[in-house]
Design goal:
The chain is mostly helical and 219 residues long. It is built from 10 helices and no strands. It is elongated.
């Protein structure tokens, strides 16, 4: 950004961009942070490097996101928002869209549209017991927990899934089927010779749906 310093002028207050410029700067910071976190992880990425790449002072990151955890939280939230919103939409009438098929399609869509996300989750959240994991557990996980397990329990009560199933374990099994191939894809590509393209994720969602419904589906 050649005119990055000008974006902080004429803004109604020192260091505060005008409305249009604010959207541009904030969006550029988020896009740059997303790429940086995906490549270098939470601990390997500095706020200065993100600000320098955009061409602004690092104080702009503090202005928009508060601090590094705040920026990281926003990156995760934006990446997972489509999944969270679609899960939230499934909490309605039990006669609505097929739960299992829709859930597997949702996870496949996230993997296809955001191929960097599994790597970020494995490195920063699963493998590292630190600040990044705390951010996910405290700020993202509650939204996931508030939608999916209750919907599974509702489907069991409504007869769409077997009545003898444990809702918590059923949720674990479903998420495991959906998520493990995504986070393990670099290994699975080498071991099984699969290609992580749109066609593969569609086949995976259909396969998981059939496997799950034949084993756990209601009468």
């Amino acid at each position: 950004m050649n005119n990055s310093h000008d974006e902080t002028r004429n803004c109604g207050g020192p260091g505060r961009p005008a409305t249009e410029d604010a959207r541009n700067v904030r969006g550029l910071l988020l896009d740059t942070a997303t790429r940086a976190f995906a490549v270098r992880g939470f601990h390997g990425t500095s706020l200065r490097s993100i600000a320098d790449a955009v061409g602004v002072n690092s104080a702009m990151i503090h202005y928009y996101f508060g601090n590094k955890p705040g920026l990281y939280t926003q990156v995760l939230s934006d990446a997972l928002e489509p999944l969270l919103a679609r899960q939230q939409a499934l909490t309605g009438d039990a006669a609505g869209p097929d739960l299992v098929a829709e859930l597997f399609r949702m996870y496949a869509d996230v993997a296809r549209e955001r191929p960097w996300l599994p790597r970020l989750i494995v490195r920063d959240i699963l493998a590292a017991d630190g600040e990044a994991r705390s951010i996910f557990v405290e700020r993202i996980a509650p939204r996931l927990r508030a939608t999916l397990p209750p919907r599974i329990a509702q489907s069991i009560r409504g007869g769409r899934l077997r009545e003898d199933l444990d809702p918590q374990l059923t949720t674990l099994s479903l998420v495991s089927l959906a998520v493990f191939p995504i986070v393990a894809m670099p290994i699975l590509e080498a071991v099984l010779g699969v290609t992580a393209d749109a066609e593969f994720y569609q086949r995976l969602a259909e396969h998981n749906t059939q496997l799950f419904e034949e084993g756990a589906g209601g009468g």
